[in-house]
Write a structure and sequence with these properties.
Elements lengths: L1 H18 L10 H8 L6 E2 L6 E2 L6 E5 L1 H5 L7 H4 L6 E4 L8 E4 L10 E2 L1 E5 L2 E2 L6 E2 L10 E8 L3 H4 L6 E7 L8 E9 L3 E12 L2 E12 L8 E15 L2 E15 L6 H7 L14 E18 L2 E18 L2 E4 L2 E16 L2 E21 L26 E22 L3 E18 L11 E19 L2 E12 L3 H5 L15 E14 L3 E19 L10 E19 L5 E16 L23 E11 L3 E10 L2 E2 L26 E2 L2 E14 L2 E10 L7 E6 L6 E5 L4 E9 L1
Parallel strand pairs: 7-11
Antiparallel strand pairs: 1-2, 3-10, 4-5, 6-9, 7-8, 10-11, 12-13, 12-38, 13-14, 14-15, 15-16, 16-17, 17-18, 18-19, 18-20, 19-21, 20-21, 21-22, 22-23, 23-24, 24-25, 25-26, 26-27, 27-28, 28-29, 29-30, 30-31, 31-34, 32-33, 34-35, 35-38, 36-37
């Protein structure tokens, strides 16, 4: 390990010595990256439903700016974009766009997608009425302008879908010229390639942006291919300085084979690229086609009053195959919101009041067909990377209609005191309704038909004190309300189809303290401490006789989550920038503290929460030299983490077990990892044409590690998804 670090330091020093004699780069360089990051007095955050300067926000906020996004090479998934955001963990074991994303432990247990995190794309919510975010496939990271990440209990702003935080993604607007064009092409390891075309501009009162991209790859592991088409179009019309209307249209076509996790016996016997034993013969895959249209308007009613309105409709086709069945879930989702803003007061005491309401509705028509049993499966059925073949049987396992509605009303009151102290109060009430109609005849005594209602008020209060440019101090206290997601509510452990009657919402309350600031133009820092207490935490478990389906959920007890998140950006010399994001997480269960095997209750007090490393560090050094080159050396380090919520499963199997893992006992703990990345970028300009050429090496020293883990209460214990080994990528961008 020491030799690797010395090699990296030597490389950086060599580039530094060569670059000191060169002129300052006048396009995009490391120094401009620092200036783009440090803008406490300038950057206006939009994720909090009102436009608020960063220095006035009493909450932990991380900004991923355009310069940082430009240096991404693959531009296909959130792990690239959010790599330097403390408190956020993104697992990309599939090597494509399908990721697991967590903020302070929220979102860790969902089978696909995540819940507890509000995601917005150009102001349009990605989450469904119950707060579940199925994926981030609609985001083409090559066309993203910036990302705002607000961490902590933000349910008082967006409801039950924002207990962990908010991710607000803003795509590129049109440039100043009538027509601006960007073309991008990337290629790399394991059959990966991507092409992207983007046209934008401004003509009179119209600002527009249009893009299309296609990407695909075979993936690191067997049966892990993916293919994506993304189209997006955004038009902003400003007929006067009092009216602004934005129209948005996106289309996504995403397909990925699902190699699933494997047990350690298969990993040790067949290697990290092996798929699960079911993946290939059952041709397990996910297929998503989604069309979203939206209209957003902002109307200036008076000098100190404005109205914001929003409406969207989303049509989604989703199919998932597995050894349990072939599941079809088409749905229609539509919603809208309105918000009235009033600003009044004097210069030293200004009040900003917002009152608003949200509404969403969604209808899912689900059919799941049985597939052949193991002794009848056709091991040769998959004949290509993109095969969507699955031999459905006549038996229907699930035939049901799920309807969801959610409504929320909220108040935001921000008070500015003497341009130094800023107080914010958020209040919200949410109502979430779900109904289910089963279309498979069953006896009345076991009918799963019915409805569920979850409702609760939440609030958050905060105070920010802008002492000076070098010290911006803030604190807040808030409550959270987290309803079960689709996976957790509709995967019924009692029978196929119907509601999960065992689960109820989780609630939280917590405090947050932080300080951030800029020291000159060379150093920026942000440190946050938080402490959260939660009740009715969600946990996964297995049911005998339900095949390999492990995605059943229940409430397990209480927890205490506290930690520290730190980000620093330092430019010790010209054209050299060092960025580092470190997170310490102390997440443990505090109850129950007794065992009742009859009712399935186990003592887990003091047990670490799953999939959350105690330590996470991402750091990188960027240096610009010879006017055109930028080299970046980075590292990602995570300490070990546990898989199981309850370790009692290990008591059921003894040494000598020969089913999957002969002669050994496994524990819940997974070894951490430390990988290094290298990026070299060359910027050039010839007349009216300019562009970039980039070379990116991920996992430079080819370390073997696991990107994602899941619990499995069987003789194979747990499920592991090996992460990719060393990968190479090249990228070419042309702008004219």
């Amino acid at each position: 390990m020491k030799s690797k670090i010395l090699i990296l330091i030597a490389c950086v020093l060599a580039f530094s010595m060569q670059g000191f004699s060169q002129k300052e780069r006048k396009s995009r360089d490391a120094q401009s990256a620092l200036k783009d990051t440090i803008r406490l007095n300038e950057f206006v955050v939009k994720a909090l439903r009102t436009d608020i300067p960063l220095k006035e926000i009493p909450a932990a906020v991380s900004i991923v700016n355009g310069t940082q996004l430009t240096f991404m090479q693959k531009t296909i998934a959130a792990d690239e974009a959010l790599r330097l955001v403390p408190g956020v963990r993104v697992d990309n074991g599939t090597d494509g766009s399908r990721v697991h994303l967590y903020i302070r432990g929220q979102g860790i247990l969902s089978e696909s997608g995540f819940r507890g995190i509000q995601v917005l794309m150009d102001g349009v919510p990605v989450n469904d009425p119950g707060g579940y975010c199925p994926d981030l496939y609609d985001v083409d990271w090559g066309t993203v302008k910036n990302v705002e990440v607000v961490k902590g209990l933000a349910a008082s702003l967006y409801g039950a879908n924002a207990t962990g935080g908010i991710i607000n993604i803003t795509t590129l607007d049109g440039g100043k010229k009538p027509v601006n064009t960007m073309l991008s092409a990337s290629a790399g390891s394991y059959g990966f390639w991507k092409i992207l075309g983007h046209v934008d501009g401004t003509q009179d009162k119209i600002n527009y942006s249009v893009s299309y991209s296609h990407s695909q790859g075979h993936g690191y592991r067997e049966h892990q291919s993916f293919m994506a088409d993304n189209f997006s179009e955004k038009v902003r019309w400003t007929p006067s300085n009092k009216i602004m209307i934005t129209q948005i249209l996106t289309y996504t076509n995403y397909f990925n084979q699902n190699s699933e996790g494997i047990n350690l016996y298969r990993y040790e016997t067949f290697g990290p690229r092996a798929a699960n034993t079911d993946a290939v013969p059952y041709n397990e895959f996910h297929d998503t086609k989604r069309l979203t249209g939206a209209l957003l308007g902002r109307f200036q009613l008076a000098k100190n009053q404005d109205l914001q309105v929003k409406g969207f409709v989303r049509s989604n086709y989703y199919r998932e195959t597995s050894n349990n069945g072939d599941d079809y879930k088409p749905y229609i989702n539509l919603g809208g919101s309105t918000q009235y803003n009033l600003h009044f007061g004097k210069e030293n005491l200004m009040d900003h009041l917002s009152i608003g309401a949200d509404f969403q509705t969604q209808t899912i028509t689900e059919h799941e067909y049985a597939v052949p049993p193991e002794n009848q499966r056709d091991s040769n059925r998959v004949d290509s990377y993109w095969s969507r073949q699955c031999f459905d049987q006549n038996a229907i396992l699930i035939n049901q209609i799920i309807k969801q509605r959610s409504a929320g009303i909220y108040l935001i009151d921000k008070l500015d005191i003497a341009k130094k102290v800023y107080a914010i109060l958020n209040l919200r009430y949410d109502y979430v309704y779900t109904s289910l109609t089963n279309n498979i005849p069953v006896p009345d005594s076991v009918s799963p038909d019915g409805s569920k209602v979850f409702d609760k008020p939440t609030y958050r209060i905060g105070l920010a004190w802008d002492i000076a440019k070098f010290a911006n101090v803030y604190a807040n206290y808030g409550t959270g309300f987290l309803t079960p997601s689709n996976d957790e509510l509709y995967n019924n452990p009692v029978t196929w189809g119907g509601f999960n009657e065992l689960i109820k919402p989780s609630t939280s309350q917590g405090v947050e303290l932080g300080v951030r600031g800029d020291i000159g133009n060379v150093f920026h820092y942000d440190v946050t401490g938080f402490d959260i207490f939660s009740d009715n935490e969600f946990a996964r478990f297995s049911v005998p006789g339900r095949g390999n389906n492990t995605a059943f959920y229940k409430n397990i007890g209480k927890s205490n989550k506290w930690g520290i998140e730190t980000f620093v950006s330092w430019s010790p010399v010209k054209n050299l920038v060092i960025d580092a994001a470190y997170t310490y997480s102390h997440f443990r269960y505090t109850a129950p503290d007794y065992t009742d095997t009859i009712n399935g209750i186990y003592n887990i007090k003091g047990h670490w929460m799953p999939n959350i490393p105690e330590h996470m560090l991402t750091a990188q050094i960027s240096y610009s030299f010879l006017n055109h080159f930028t080299v970046t050396v980075g590292t990602q380090w995570q300490s070990k983490w546990c898989i199981q919520v309850d370790d009692s499963i290990y008591n059921n199997y003894t040494i000598g077990q020969t089913y999957y893992q002969p002669g050994s006992i496994r524990s819940s703990w997974v070894d951490g990892f430390n990988i290094y990345n290298l990026n070299l970028d060359y910027t050039w300009k010839i007349g009216w044409l300019n562009g970039d050429i980039g070379l990116y090496v991920k996992n430079l020293f080819d370390e073997r590690y696991f990107g994602f883990t899941e619990p499995n209460n069987g003789p194979d214990y747990n499920s592991y998804q090996p992460a990719p080994g060393r990968e190479f990528f090249v990228n070419l961008k042309l702008r004219f």
